[in-house]
Amino acid sequence: MPSTHPIPAVIGSGLSGLLISHALSKAGIDHVLIGGPPSTGSPRLGESLGIPATVHLATEFPDLAQFYGSKLYARVLLGEVKGGFRLDTWRTTATDLSLRYWNKRGPDYLFHLDRTEFDAVLYTKVTASRHCLPLEDRVAAIDVVPGTDRIGALDLENSGELAVSHVFDATGHVRLLARRLAIPRRMLGVTQNVVFAHYFKAENAGAQGGDAARPPRIVSDLDWRDGTTILRLYHEIDGFDGMAWCIPLGDKVSVGVSTPANGPALSEDVLLQRTQTRFARHHIHYGDDYPVRSRLGKAKMEFYTHARACGSNWLLAAAAHHQIWWTASTGLDLAVTAAGAAVPFIRKPAQTACRYQAGMNRVEHVQRLWAFGAEHRYGTATDHGMQEFENELTWLIAARFAHTIHLEREDWISAIGTRVASAMLSSDLSQYAPATGRSIRIETK
Description:
With 445 residues, this protein is of the alpha/beta class.
C-alpha cells in the first residue's frame, strides 16, 4: 500500500507520464507514477519534434543530448507540389528574447528524437527523484466520489486502494479515464494502419541504438539527411493511398507509412518497398546508404477527441484526450502541454482547467489542416493550396507553443507577455516558408 493520504497519481509511464512526473518532482510535489519501465530496442512513433517538445527537452534534459538529432527543415511532397519550412533559422533576436523571457533554452534547430533507448533512460532518470514513487501496477477500478466527477481513489491490481488528490491520465490510446468515466469520444477521420522500421548502414546492422546527433550542417542547400520529409502516396501511381515519412536519426533512418484501414490489403513488405521506390523518385535514396531493415513496428491509429479534457481533479494528457495526424508532430508537443499544466492544475485547478480545455479544443483544427495533404485526390494539389497550408500552419505552430507556455504562467502580466512573444515567433517562422510554387532546395548527392 503506497499511502493512505491522498496523493497525485500519474497513470502511464510513457513519455507523457514521464514528463508530467518530472514536472511534479521539479516542483517538489510527491506523487505516484503507475506503470513499468518502457521496452528498448524497437522503433517508436514520435521521432520528429515540434517547437514545444524541442524547447522542453533542451531546457529540462540537456544531459540527454546524445538522443537529439538535428532537424533543419520539414518538407512536404504532394505529387509535383512541394512545400515546407527551414528550421535552422527559426531563432532570431525576437525569438531569443521570447525564450529568455520564458526562461527556456532554444537550440539552433529543432530535434529528431531517437526513441530506441530514450524512453527507458528517461524513465530511470525521472523515477530516481525522491518525490516520485514508481509502481509497476495496473488500475483495476476507479472510485468516483458520489454526486461529483471527482476521483477519490484508484484500485490497483497488486497494491490495493490508492487514495488520490489528483489524477493525470497518460495512458495514450488506451484512454483509461475517458473509457471508465464514459466521456464522449468523437472520431475525426478514417482509422489508419501504420507500419514503420529503422534502416541501418550495413556495418551497423546489429545496432539498435547509437548516436542520433549527426552534426548539423547549417548550409544554404540541405541534404535529405538533415530534415523530416513527408510524402503523399497515391493509388493511381503507387497502388494505395498513404502518407509516409523519412526521418534521419544519425546512424539510421526511420521510415514509415500510414494507409486507410479500409484500403487495399497489402503486406507490410510491399508497403515499405513501394514507399522506398517513391522516395527514390524524389532523390531520397535511403535504401542505398541504409540497406538493412530492423524488425517492423505496427500500429493502428485512430483520430479522435473527447468532449472533456479535465474534471475536478483529473486531466487527460496527450493521446488520452486527443489523437490527430502524426504529420503534425503534435504527439510529444501535447505531452509537453500536459506537463506544463500539471503543477498549475494542482495549485489552481479551475483556472488551469479552463485554459487547458480551451487549448485542447483548438487541436482539432490541426487535424483539419493536415487533411489537405492526406485526403486530397491525385492531381488536385496546387501551389496556392500549399501556400495557404504553410501560412495557416505557421500560426498554429506559434499558437501551440504559446498555449504550452501560457499554462505554466499564473499571472496576467506573464499571459500578456506570452501573447506578444507568440506573435513575434509566428512572424519569424513565416519568413522561412518557401514562396508559392517553390520548394526548399535539397541536395540529391
